[in-house]
């Protein structure tokens, strides 16, 4: 059984309390429960992580690339948070590792501040899901299942 890595970046540990009008009332624990259910429905195991540290996220992406090469990982659902708009290091980690990744945003970043309109990740991921709220995670997992 292959694994899906759901990787969450900075401030996503604050879901449920941080700007609920933008991100909703669901917590990161609620997201993990939804991802567990979605992975099970597609025959995947879940590896669910969150970090506020860019280097930890780079390490996780590189590890995921090795796991995908070994045939044990289906891909990564990556909500990089603010690092989406700033991190060349995460871009390089995805590109360099060759991992199949889907960029995910809970909010519609294109309907928000202009600095959120540019993504360093979009050029190196398989697809982008934005604006569907927390259910977007299940959509991303289904997309990975469709690629397997």
UniProtKB/TrEMBL annotation:
Pathway: Metabolic intermediate biosynthesis; chorismate biosynthesis; chorismate from D-erythrose 4-phosphate and phosphoenolpyruvate: step 3/7. Substrate binds at residues 79, 85, 92, 106-107, 116. It catalyses: 3-dehydroquinate = 3-dehydroshikimate + H2O. One of its GO terms (biological process) is aromatic amino acid family biosynthetic process. GO terms for molecular function: 3-dehydroquinate dehydratase activity. The active site is at 23 (proton acceptor), 105 (proton donor). Keywords: Amino-acid biosynthesis, Aromatic amino acid biosynthesis, Lyase. It comes from the Bacteria. The record marks 18 as: Transition state stabilizer. InterPro entries: DHquinase_II (IPR001874), DHquinase_II_CS (IPR018509), DHquinase_II_sf (IPR036441). PROSITE patterns: DEHYDROQUINASE_II. Its EC number is 4.2.1.10. It holds the Pfam family DHquinase_II. Homododecamer. Belongs to the type-II 3-dehydroquinase family. Catalyzes a trans-dehydration via an enolate intermediate. This is 3-dehydroquinate dehydratase.
